[in-house]
Amino acid sequence: xxxxxxxxxxxxxxxxxxxxxxxxxxxxxxxxxxxxxxxxxxxxxxxxxxxxxxxxxxxxxxxxxxxxxxxxxxxxxxxxxxxxxxxxxxxxxxxxxxxxxxxxxxxxxxxxxxxxxxxxxxxxxxxxxxxxxxxxxxxxxxxxxxxxxxxxxxxxxxxxxxxxxxxxxxxxxxxxxxxxxxxxxxxxxxxxxxxxxxxxxxxxxxxxxxxxxxxxxxxxxxxxxxxxxxxxxxxxxxxxxxxxxxxxxxxxxxxxxxxxxxxxxxxxxxxxxxxxxxxxxxxxxxxxxxxxxxxxxxxxxxxxxxxxxxxxxxxxxxxxxxxxxxxxxxxxxxxxxxxxxxxxxxxxxxxxxxxxxxxxxxxxxxxxxxxxxxxxxxxxxxxxxxxxxxxxxxxxxxxxxxxxxxxxxxxxxxxxxxxxx
Length: 421
Ligand code: PLP
Fold this sequence. Notes:
Blueprint: H1 3-9, H2 35-43, H3 57-70, E1 74-78, H4 81-90, E2 98-102, H5 107-119, E3 123-127, H6 133-137, E4 144-150, H7 162-171, E5 176-179, H8 184-187, E6 197-201, E7 215-219, H9 231-234, H10 245-249, H11 253-266, H12 272-283, H13 285-305, E8 309-313, H14 323-329, E9 337-342, H15 345-355, E10 360-361, E11 371-373, H16 385-390, E12 397-401, H17 407-419
Helix pairs in contact: 1-3, 3-12, 15-17
This protein binds pyridoxal-5'-phosphate (PLP).
Residues 80-82, 85, 106, 108-109, 150, 154, 179, 181-182, 201, 203, 213, 215 line the site of pyridoxal-5'-phosphate.
């Protein structure tokens, strides 16, 4: 099946007389005939359901759909994108370990990696993704356990050279985790370029309608956890009566460990109702992504011509710093998000944003409605000036998330707001 078909049919196939639409299984528990049957489920949780803190049929149908879209062997939904980032790392790193991350990533992830994980004894070493291989290699230490990056960085909109970073990670025998939130699997499939794990904030384009916060971790099944660097995968898990993940689950070792160990203990699983809503968003994802890209390119071209605008970052624009990489990794388009810097710095940016009538000021992105955000005052507020620069966030930068309104209405709104600057 192609993406459009997968979005409608993967994960749930009704049998004779069953509901056409994927049902919401609103139950915390599942019933078994005997004590022995329950014991068998505990021996191999992949066979049946135990408890909705870490598995539920409605959520699992969506997990299957997303795994299918990304080309992975399995997926696990989480209650937020942040939980997906956190668990994707904790499934590999423990206190005393380090990992490498590109610096142009979502501000909330920078906070998680640089502040909260540090408190847990896990060190994150940030690197400039555009640096050459030799420079990036210097960040690796004997305790480095993985590499993390974003396909399309929020909000700098830098395109990651996934193949280059994957090559460096694999040379060091560690996996590459990619946050593919902005691109979605419709625009880019990181596994095709060597990534091993993909995570998403499903709160963005996947849900698409700003209905609920969520996340997902997808396993490519390709990384060799038996290479000697990852004993938690190859040695008995005391918390799971001595189970060895690589022996029991083979290619699905990473995602099964994430579910059975981390989700069991942290319980950051979405509700069946949330998964049902996410599924509605996923059903139209390819159609929406096409229109987002079309509208955003038109808007980016318009903004580029305005004498009130200092710069526009949108990798689909010819001449953009990341245009060449975008043609390789995102040939169908670079989503609906544009970074624009208005002449006059922070004050001009605020005046422009406050003058908008159709586009709303929101702490959100990738909605069907056009919205704007000033990252330096909001999502990246906790970062120092130095971190702001590293994350590609100029104080006058505005993140414009172009929606699915008629593009002429969007441009008219931008025009009247620019006239006020
Ligand atoms: N990753 C990216 C690229 C994001 O933009 C965000 C949120 O904006 C997150 C992760 C965190 O996701 P959530 O807000 O669903 O926790």
